[in-house]
Amino acid sequence: MKPIRIFRHEDWIQSGRLEEYLAAHDVPCELVCIERGDGVPQQIDDVSGLAFLGGTMSVNDDYPWLAEEMALIRTAAAKDFPMLGHCMGSQLIAKALGGAVAPMPAKEIGWYAVQKADNPVAKEWLQAAPDRFDIFIWHHDAFSLPPGAAPLYSSEYCPDQAYALGNSVATVAHAEVTAAMLEEWLRLYGYDIAPPSDSVQPIEQIRERLAERCATMHRQFTDRLYDAWLERVRAYTPGERVA
Question: Which of 20, 76, 156, 162 reaches 20 to 30 Å from 3, CA-CA?
Fold first, then answer.
């Protein structure tokens, strides 16, 4: 099959579990490394899906590549082309398709329990996930749902955590993070955590049982979400999205 095109925005915010999962399922992938100056390809007929990773910048910043990625997202969405968004990637898709992205009253960083939404779309996409599960979250901004999107789950501090729209799915959480990645994030960007609060866990708490928690998140949620998305990637046939 054609590869999945993954957009990376900073070299230390990598694809992690996503790339591991694709390799395990014999799905090729290619990286577009924005931080290296790679251009944003606007075609989609040479790939099977698009995935957008996170970044410490805001989707509201004035970078030309942000506008280019959002133009690509609109092109893909018009054909119901499969897309996947993590953290800032979820905000990119939301903003490109008519949602809003703005700073939260308080940032949300740490391992938090989320509750599966009670709607048919959430049940379809997350049918193999438990109703309540822990996930790793690190974000300052929140999105509003783009028109037509259905919420998938919520947290105590941010009700709009994830959504699905046609063949596309996005989550503001870092479902792709691995223990090694998270250790690197804490080393490079741990200063962002201060000061701890109800919605910001201290580094020591984030590190508790880190490998175990990442493995549990992957088993309960990440891989199940990827299963549902990959099924749509494999079944996709070009066509206009039904409004």
Answer: 162
With residue 69 as reference, give the H or E element that holds it: helix 64-78
Protein fold of 4-235: Rossmann fold (3.40.50)
Tens digit of each residue's pLDDT (9 = 90 or more) over 130-185: 999 999 999 999 999 999 999 999 999 999 999 999 999 999 999 999 999 999 99
Of 187, 189, 227, 167, residue with least CA distance to 54? 189
Distance from C-alpha of 140 to C-alpha of 153, rounded to nearest angstrom: 18
Among 34, 27, 68, smallest CA distance to 48 is for: 27
Determine how many CB atoms are found less than 10 A away from the CB of residue 134.
16
Residues 99 and 183: beta-carbon distance below 8 Å = no
H helix and E strand count, the chain: 8, 10
Helix, strand, coil shares, percent, the chain, to 5: 35, 25, 40
- Give first-to-last CA distance, the chain, whole Å: 28
Buried b (16+ CB within 10 A) or exposed e, 102-111: eeeeebbbbb
Closest CA to 13 of 110, 107, 138, 100: 138
The amino acid sitting at 134 is D
